[in-house]
Amino acid sequence: MFRNIINLTHSLAYRQPIFNLLIRPFSITSINFTVKKQGGIKYDQTYKITKYIKKIDENKYTIGQEHPKGVKVPKSIPEFPSYKYETRFFKRQNFGLYGGLQRKRSKSSSKFLTKNLRAHLPNIQKASLWSEILNKKIKTRVSTRVLRTLTKEGGLDQYLLKDKSARIKTMGLYGWKLRYKLLKKLEQDERGYFQFENKLKPIQHITKDGRKFISSKEELLPLLYNEIQNDSYYPIKQSQMERQYSWLSYDEIVNKLDDCNVDLTRFTV
Amino acid sequence: MSFIGRERISSNHSVTPQKNNRVNNNTIIKNELLDEQKAEIREAFQMFDMNGDGCLDYHELKVAFRSLGFDLSKKEVLDIIKEYDMDDSRLITYDNFYKTVGEMIIRRDPIEEIRRAFKLFDVDGTGSISLRNLRKVSKDLGENLTDEELQAMIDEFDFDEDGESTKNRFMRDISKYTESHKKEIIKMKQITSMPTFQNFFPDKLPRSKQKTQFEAGIIEGDFAYISQGKHKGKIAQVLNYSTEYDTVALSNITSQKLLPKTFWPEGQTSHVMEFPDFIPRKDIKVAGKEKVDEKINYIVADEIVLKDKYYDERYKKWIPRRFIKHHENIEIPWPNPSNVLEDNELSTPEEIVMEKTFEFQSIGKSPIPSDCLNELRNPYSKYKIKKLDGLQVSKLNGVEMPMTKEQKIWKLKQEEKPKKELVPLSDDIKEFIGEKMANHLNKIESPELKLHLEHLSKLRNRDFENTMKKINGNNL
């Protein structure tokens, strides 16, 4: 009988998948969700469902599409990828590694059973954590729980680069940004460096035909603008240029410059 | 519009009586003055002698001088009065007036005279006479003519039809007043208007009720039979149809009006003018002229009807045909237009004027170049379909999180896996499944279960349908 009820509640819970319910009135922290599988019940890993998640626009827009109603175009291209689990409650967790820990409430009771609301704040410490990939220490506020996880995982990099969905949900906005930086650095490392006057300089891009570019996209764009301006019968405004070409990928810019027969050897190694 | 000329007059001559010459010239006046001029002086004196006592006071004298074309200052006028004033009555008699004016007329220069007459009206020195100028002069003369009357005067001589500021937004527009207020104003104005012009001008029709001459069915050059009023039974040629008043002016039905010299049209020689009466359209009937055996017959149409349009070469217009009502086989043709301008060496040939130099807008072809369209359109129109450009898309989509090593490996593995393909079942397999199913169904004995299974087979299975669609789609 009892078992049936559990199954019932469980199935109800699955009717409304928790991932889709982005805005929830209360947090669910300690319930274990059961997944019925062949050969018995397997308990899913415990994870935090954060309260009041900021909804993000996951639509992929295409060029030439009609301007969607009610969508505001940001002023600039965002620096970091959008994070699905950014909370709008206890916002300090967006500025440190809190591991999904949030403020809790309870009632304190006196000797005479007078009840007062009190808060339980997570145990937060300031710490500088060494990142092997970035080769520098990162000074943040970390919860002691995360410090424990860090030692288990074997470092900040391993903690942030784990692919499990629970980790991505609990690492918070700050962790998500750090993860982006780490992955970018890894990409850079893959591309390699070159020696320039007793200094290591990063190779910005490697094209398919093997050319290694040392200058950034922003340094190549003026060349392209110049070519297009020369090719046009009418003067083209800078803003118009930027609207048309500034967002192009490195490869596309190089291809366009190649089509114009621009000598790019001084930008390559 | 212009009375005499358009060039601006700068000379400022004023003829003042000179004491020394006057006595000597007394005899010359009688000889040199034309009969016309004598009559003129007499008329002017009679006209401005309001109280009829045979004398003019200062104000009357000044206006009388003005009407004769002499613009004298206050001091000069007072001097003249003083000279002939024997009994301190401050009045001037007709004899003395005749003497002074006669002297001045002899002394004046004909061209100068024309200039002065013009200048009299062109108070603001614009080089042309506007309604405003005319109003000021009429006010000076003490003849409070209505604006409509003044405008009629200007229109009479407005040959180049520039209308000279006929409408001013600061001007009093009587047509906007209420009916009772309007009547009161017109009444007040008529008290001070010239006696011969009192109740002369009919009421103006509102714009919405005005008809063109073709709509009204009567036009310049037509013959009209007067069916009502004083002149009943007369037949006359129409001089003009006034759309504003809905009246006609007829050739031989006129009344004599007194006009100050300043308002005289070209060729006028006396203060008395034959002014055509305003005869309402309802009082006249259109008449057709017919010549039978050198005998002229008139056919008077009680009512007329206007039917189907045709292009008239004489008027260069599409106009309706005019028939007698209830006798619609009888057409009254439109008369020949009176003032047809003849071509001369400077006029542009007709085919050049009528040449089509532009294209009409059509659905197929727009007259506006397509490149120009965007500039003409409203960039903020709510009907404009806005489309996302590359920069906007990259801003909206943002950057993507790079994949980790594990993710890359997983993705490669996924790509390596063969893709699931939906293939239709082969005949062998179909047979095998059918056999198994048949065996199983034959074993069933319970009729309820059979019924249930039959019912189940009839139910619609969306998933099955979709898969079948995919399979067939792949085959196709």
Automatic annotation (TrEMBL), chain A:
An annotated Gene Ontology molecular function: structural constituent of ribosome
Family: Belongs to the bacterial ribosomal protein bL28 family.
Name of the protein in question: 54S ribosomal protein L24, mitochondrial
Source domain of life: Eukaryota
Keyword list, A-Z: Ribonucleoprotein, Ribosomal protein
Signal peptide positions on this chain: none
PANTHER family in the record: 39S RIBOSOMAL PROTEIN L28, MITOCHONDRIAL, LARGE RIBOSOMAL SUBUNIT PROTEIN BL28M
Gene Ontology CC annotation, any one: mitochondrial large ribosomal subunit
Biological source species: Candida verbasci
TrEMBL record, chain B:
A molecular function (GO) term: calcium ion binding
Keyword terms: Calcium, Metal-binding, Repeat
Residue ranges constituting the EF-hand domain according to the UniProt record: 36-71, 72-107, 109-144
UniProt keyword ATP-binding, yes or no: no
Top-rank taxon: Eukaryota
TM annotation in the entry: none
Pfam family, one: Ribosomal_uL24m-like
CDD domains hit by this protein: EFh (cd00051)
InterPro entries: CALM/Myosin/TropC-like (IPR050230), EF-hand-dom_pair (IPR011992), EF_Hand_1_Ca_BS (IPR018247), EF_hand_dom (IPR002048), Translation_prot_SH3-like_sf (IPR008991)
Region Disordered, residue ranges: 1-22
Residue ranges with Basic and acidic residues bias: 1-10
Keyword Hydrolase: no
Listed GO CC annotations: myosin II complex
PANTHER family (UniProt xref): CENTRIN 3, MYOSIN LIGHT CHAIN 1, 3
Record's protein name: EF-hand domain-containing protein
Native species: Candida verbasci
